[in-house]
């Protein structure tokens, strides 16, 4: 879908529908009141009767009788003005675009009137993201071509030249973010027989080419030379060669270059069968999304570069399948990670922490300012926090606070879990330094404590096991991959660039 910016009033615009985002319990005002007058009060009567109240996510569609202007009006609720959040605006844009698509409309225009305290630029960023994210669908394996029926354009109308410039900037930014999120979704939704580690590497290559990133893909032999016994241990059970993907973006000012980059690391298990500690078959098909962390970091660095954020950033995605092949790791086996620490394998299904361990060691070579890893790491996180909170752990108060803030801003919310020393005891090995499972208690935290054994820099860990997949579909987040983390990381980096 195209996003266009134009000067003029939406009431005079020839289009399939004029979209108005309205607050709960408020009468039509401005351009909407004008249209309402010309239409004999049909909109205000609908509001007065309570058929449309402006509640969050609520929509209404009116056919208009006359004229040269819009053929229809779409109303989308923003909820109460005193409870307004930027997320409500994204949702309203999302449900409006969804309704327009369902009605088979080709082009819509939106009245661009930012609520008090919000700039035109921010309004356009949010509206653009809401619409583009809502219209995402993963349908390339369907014979029917949904896209033929799709909405072709959204025009945002500006009142004057300066508003027009603001909206243009915001829409361009919103487009870049939404495209990157959707790029991640395409990787995560893809079936595991397509999205192998090699194909992940080729997606990373395409992203690198698109925005000029440096790409390095470490092959099995390279990883072997580096002593990545934990990562390679996981890869041993699969016929697919592992790929350790590294992308670098240097957008920082020369003074930042001396400070070391931010590093983001994403778990890239392209399919998690559990290995020899095989998972129950029910629901196993979902384990194609065990590379959601890797998808998120590849998309996030692509996005940071496309937005030209003034930061230095490295993205690392250790990618492999976790399969029970003849050479697979077995419970009781021992592996040695890149920092020399030995790990007894208790369950081959606790593979994410193994691949992350080597990636965290590798990150040290950058002398990073901070490292954030993101992973569908533990089923226990789903039990603890459910579908809408990321489990957050870390070793640096300032960093975890910044991540909480960025998550709130992006509505990809993170909730911090304790990382007290006592929790590491469960992970200590009898015959090795560590074991890869610490029992059922606090399994999300003990996984975090395990990871901490491989870091010597400010670090935060995001467990997205519960949030990476959407079961039902929400406004601007259709069923399937959520690509959670991309917008959080961008919010985090934006503050760094400021
Ligand atoms: N990929 C899974 C975690 C997961 C579970 C992600 C549900 C998304 C939804 C991970 O590799 C895993 O299997 N973890 C085990 C660890 C256990 C053996 C200590 C788990 O959480 O059960
Ligand atoms: Zn597993
Ligand atoms: Zn896993």
Task: Kindly describe this structure.
With 498 residues, the protein is an alpha/beta fold. The chain folds into two domains: 2-175, 3-Layer(aba) Sandwich (Leucine Aminopeptidase, subunit E, domain 1); 190-497, Aminopeptidase, CATH 3.40.630.10. It has helices spanning 30-38, 42-48, 86-102, 120-134, 161-189, 197-211, 220-226, 229-235, 254-257, 292-306, 352-363, 379-385, 397-410, 443-452, 486-497; strands at 2-7, 17-22, 59-63, 72-77, 107-111, 153-158, 214-218, 243-250, 262-266, 268-272, 312-322, 334-336, 342-344, 370-375, 390-394, 414-416, 434-435, 459-463, 469-470, 480-481. Strands 7, 8, 9, 10, 11, 14, 15, 16 and 18 form a nine-stranded mixed sheet that branches. Strand 10, helix 10 (292-306) and strand 11 form a beta-alpha-beta unit. Bound molecules: ligand BES and zinc ion (2 copies).
């Amino acid at each position: 879908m195209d996003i266009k910016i134009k000067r003029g009033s939406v009431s005079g615009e020839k289009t399939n529908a004029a979209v108005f985002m309205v607050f709960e319990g408020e009468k039509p005002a401005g351009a909407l009141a004008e249209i309402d007058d010309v239409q004999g009060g049909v909109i205000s009567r609908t509001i007065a009767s309570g058929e449309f109240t402006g509640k969050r996510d609520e929509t209404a569609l009116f056919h208009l009788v006359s004229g040269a202007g819009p053929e229809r009006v779409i109303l989308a609720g923003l909820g109460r003005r005193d409870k307004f959040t930027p997320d409500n605006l994204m949702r309203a844009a999302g449900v409006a675009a969804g309704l327009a698509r369902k009605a088979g409309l080709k082009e819509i225009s939106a009245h661009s009137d930012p609520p008090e305290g919000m700039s035109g630029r921010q309004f356009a960023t949010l509206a653009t993201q809401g619409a583009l994210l809502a219209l995402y669908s993963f349908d390339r394996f369907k014979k029917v071509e949904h896209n033929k029926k799709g909405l072709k354009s959204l025009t945002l109308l500006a009142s004057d030249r300066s508003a027009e410039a603001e909206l243009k900037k915001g829409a361009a930014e919103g487009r870049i973010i939404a495209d990157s999120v959707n790029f991640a979704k395409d990787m995560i939704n893809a079936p595991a027989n397509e999205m192998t580690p090699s194909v992940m590497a080729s997606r990373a290559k395409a992203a690198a080419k698109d925005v000029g990133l440096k790409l390095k893909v470490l092959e099995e032999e390279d990883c072997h030379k580096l002593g990545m016994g934990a990562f390679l241990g996981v890869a041993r059970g699969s016929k697919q060669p592992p790929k350790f993907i590294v992308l670098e973006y240097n957008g920082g000012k020369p003074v930042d270059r001396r400070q070391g980059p931010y590093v983001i690391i994403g778990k890239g298990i392209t399919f998690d069968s559990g290995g020899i500690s095989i998972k129950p078959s029910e629901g196993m098909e979902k384990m194609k999304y065990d590379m959601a962390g890797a998808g998120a970091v590849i998309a996030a660095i692509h996005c940071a570069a496309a937005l030209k954020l003034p930061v230095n950033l490295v993205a690392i995605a250790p990618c492999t399948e976790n399969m029970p092949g003849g050479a697979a790791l077995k419970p009781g086996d021992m592996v040695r990670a890149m920092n020399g620490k030995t790990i007894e394998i208790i369950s081959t299904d606790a593979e994410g922490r193994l691949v992350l361990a080597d990636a965290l060691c590798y990150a040290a070579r950058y002398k990073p300012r901070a490292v954030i890893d993101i992973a569908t790491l533990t089923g226990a996180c789903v039990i603890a926090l459910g579908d809408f909170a990321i489990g957050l752990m870390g070793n640096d108060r300032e960093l975890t606070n910044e991540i909480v803030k960025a998550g709130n801003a992006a509505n990809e919310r993170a909730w911090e879990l304790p990382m007290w020393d006592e929790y590491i005891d469960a992970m200590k090995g009898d015959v090795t330094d560590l074991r890869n499972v610490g029992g059922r208690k606090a399994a999300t935290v003990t996984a975090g404590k395990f990871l901490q054994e491989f870091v010597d820099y400010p670090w935060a860990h995001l467990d997205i096991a519960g949030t990476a997949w959407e079961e039902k579909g929400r406004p601007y987040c259709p069923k399937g991959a959520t690509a959670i983390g991309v917008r959080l990381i961008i919010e985090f980096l934006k503050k760094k660039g400021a």
